[in-house]
Amino acid sequence: xPLFRSAFVHGDVQVIQTGSRSVTLSIGQGSKCISIKLxxxxxxxxKTDMQNLIIRLAEQSIDLETKLEKANKSLDDVKxxxxxxxxxxxxxxxxxxxxxxxxxxxxxxxxxxxxGSKKRKKARGVQFDEDDD
Length: 133
What we know:
Layout: H1 2-10, E1 13-17, E2 22-27, E3 34-39, H2 43-83
Antiparallel strand pairs: 1-2, 2-3
């Protein structure tokens, strides 16, 4: 397949209309050139080709559905094994935290920003003792 790839990379691909219902496809140049003459299919050929294509796609779809069912079944088996204590290799995120620590109740006079320290009292200014003797 290097001939096809190099021809496409270098732009050595030509499509030439040779008649009202035929086309020539040329890939490559010189002695390594491949030319293929393509003709338009008749209506009956188109119909049978489309039928074959649709049947093949349906078969592929059925095959993919069975593969998906098998994969889902094996995934369920692995999840069941994990639940039975088969090890902690996979984390599916199904398990909730069993015991969440309760936040201790707020104590009166404690700081909300820094819980380990007490609230500071507001400044009241300078207090002068005026003794009238």
